[in-house]
Design brief:
559 residues, Rossmann fold, 7-stranded parallel β-sheet, binds 2-acetamido-2-deoxy-beta-D-glucopyranose, signal, membrane, 6-stranded parallel β-sheet, single chain, 49% helix, alpha/beta
Length: 559
């Protein structure tokens, strides 16, 4: 950071003394009005998008968030003064919505949503229950979209806002519908991962199951024959399920609200000017992208936290011996964890030679907390990670914390709970700076061994430091990079980045027509060849027999 600041100062000095020609002070490029909608999501996705919005504001643009009346907590945050807000009427109350989050969290902590089978079951159940039971986690996005598109007052307010661009979470199919209804362009922001099948379907991204692993299968880019077979089959299944899901849910909304009749929802989604995905090749396996798909590491990277480390936490860090401190957090879901499991974690942590700073927002009076462990309701994670006494991070494998641990070059022990966390951990383990544990199959001993291994074996620390150096080598921090790209396509549109594959239909895209044409042409020429040969043969035979019979006649005459 110092280097960057020093450089900026030097440039500023050169600019202002007229030694080099550049834009001094105010950026003279046009400023835009952005509308941001995360589908009514109320957690990590929204927080990521807030960071990107701040990046846009730093560049002089203005940002308005579209919020659901069932979740308006963002209006009361300390940074709310930076943004504008438009609130639409949701058919859910705040309490109903919190009950849904709670149901999701319980599903996570009981392992119901953790496995691939569990997640697929929940998705299918959500699709089947669809309109009957509105209050299921996986129908939340659909309901919110329906409420938003149907709220004439909110839609009027949005139109009045005259926005230049909609920035939307790619998790919901609502943004393409909203953009179409408002007749403005849109950018999609993917908060989780590069999903090979989804991006192939929507964005024509090259997909190759031989080395690009599908999500949720625990595979790396180095697969055996059996794994490649599974990967290929799953990529077909995912493609089918994803299309079905979009068709089932958002296509119905598209019809209901009279948006772009005759255009498939998938095609609408593919019209995004740009697709920013919150990931980076420090974690993701190398794979091809398209020019309009940009990878940007997690948006919290490189941004400093406002709040200082509380006095007691600082004392706890400073007071540790050479073994140092382990940072432990499983996020907010841990409140819904079974007591026996929380006890196991507490006992495992108590065995460690390190001190442990445990972020736990619940009541710990029943847990066997070790005398090396300090439980806190809140901590400034990044400031703690930056402290030299912190030796490793023990967390669920959420993309944010994982990227932050990488940024600070810390080895990692992951206990993935749901969604992309399993895949993140597969990648982190593959890069050699992490160990992954299964919450439902671990004991205090495995916890103890994993933490002591990542702190004692030098390879974990070395790989973490190297990965950190790669991540820090970028010229821009993720939010500034995302903001740059969003402003870029707002200025120029995304046409120059859009690959032609998106305008091809299924047959053309897969070259089926070409194969059919080539096969037909091949058959025809072979058939023609045979026909010509036969014809030639027959002619030859005819002339021969004529010749022969002619000779015989001559013979007869001669007799
Ligand atoms: C791929 O995995 C196999 C064993 O599963 C291993 O022998 C091989 O070295 C790996 N290749 C690479 C490039 O890592
Ligand atoms: C935590 O739980 C214990 C017993 O279950 C109770 O006595 C205590 O008051 C609780 N503490 C808080 C802060 O709720
Ligand atoms: C902390 O607990 C360990 C056993 O869990 C014990 O050996 C040690 O003496 C305790 N230390 C203090 C300062 O109480």
């Amino acid at each position: 950071m110092m280097d960057r600041h020093g450089c900026a100062l030097l440039l500023l000095g050169l600019c202002c003394t007229g030694l080099i020609v550049c834009q001094c002070g105010e950026d003279s490029r046009p400023k835009f009005k952005f509308l941001v909608y995360t589908g009514g999501e109320d957690g990590s996705h929204h927080m990521q998008t807030i960071n990107v919005a701040k990046g846009l504001i730093r560049q002089g643009h203005s940002v308005t968030f579209l919020l659901s009346s069932s979740c308006t907590k963002w209006l009361h945050e300390g940074d709310a003064y930076l943004f504008n807000f438009i609130v639409y009427r949701s058919s859910l109350t705040t309490e109903e919505r919190e009950a849904i989050s709670e149901e999701f969290s319980v599903g996570v902590m009981t392992g119901e949503l953790g496995s691939l089978a569990g997640f697929m079951k929940a998705t299918l159940r959500g699709m089947i229950d669809g309109n009957r039971r509105r209050n299921r986690p996986l129908n939340l996005l659909l309901n919110e979209c329906d409420d938003l598109l149907g709220d004439a007052e909110a839609m009027h307010a949005i139109r009045e806002g005259q926005f230049d661009m909609l920035i939307g979470d790619d998790m919901t199919g609502c943004n393409p519908l909203l953009a179409n209804k408002l007749d403005i362009p849109f950018v999609l922001y993917g908060c989780t991962a590069v999903k090979p099948t989804k991006l192939q379907l929507l964005y024509g991204l090259p997909n190759h199951p031989a080395y690009i692993p599908e999500r949720q299968l625990g595979l790396t880019d180095n697969m055996t024959l059996l794994q490649r077979s599974t990967n290929t089959l799953m990529s077909l299944l995912y493609g089918g399920l994803y299309s079905l899901h979009m068709w089932w849910g958002f296509s119905a909304l598209q019809d209901k609200h009279g948006i772009a009749p005759n255009t498939p929802t998938l095609e609408l989604m593919g019209r995004a000017e740009l697709w920013i995905i919150s990931n980076d090749f420090v974690l993701e396996f190398p794979r091809p992208l398209q020019p309009n798909v940009i990878l940007v590491a997690h948006s919290s990277i490189g941004i400093s936290e406002d709040r200082e480390v509380p006095e007691d936490q600082l004392e706890f860090l400073e007071g540790s011996d050479d073994a140092g401190v382990i940072l432990f957090s499983l996020g907010t879901h841990v409140i819904n964890m079974e007591v026996a499991r929380a006890e196991m974690l507490a006992r495992g942590l108590a065995m460690l030679p390190h001190r442990v700073l445990w972020h736990f927002p619940g009541n710990t009076s029943q847990l066997p907390i070790g005398n090396n462990t300090k439980v806190v309701e809140w901590m400034p994670m990044k400031k703690i990670m930056a402290h030299s006494k912190v030796k490793a991070v023990l967390c669920h494998g959420g993309s944010g914390l994982l990227h932050e641990a990488i940024w600070f070059g810390l080895p990692f022990v992951g206990i993935p709970l749901f969604g992309d966390q399993f895949d993140n951990m597969v990648r982190a383990v593959h890069k050699g700076f992490a160990i992954s544990l299964d919450l439902f199959d671990m004991t205090e001993d495995t916890l103890y061994h994993a933490v002591t291994r990542v702190t004692r074996e030098p390879s974990f620390r070395e790989n973490a430091r190297k990965t950190s150096a790669i991540l820090r080598d970028d010229f821009l921090i993720p939010t500034d990079k995302a903001a740059y790209w969003i402003a870029h396509v707002t200025r120029f549109g995304g046409k120059h980045l859009r690959p032609k594959v998106l305008d091809l239909n299924f047959v053309q895209r897969n070259l089926l027509d070409v194969y059919a044409f080539l096969l037909t042409a091949g058959f025809l020429s072979v058939w023609l060849g045979i026909w010509a040969c036969r014809k030639a043969g027959r002619l030859l035979a005819l002339s021969c027999s004529k010749l022969v019979s002619g000779t015989r006649n001559d013979d007869r005459k001669n007799k």
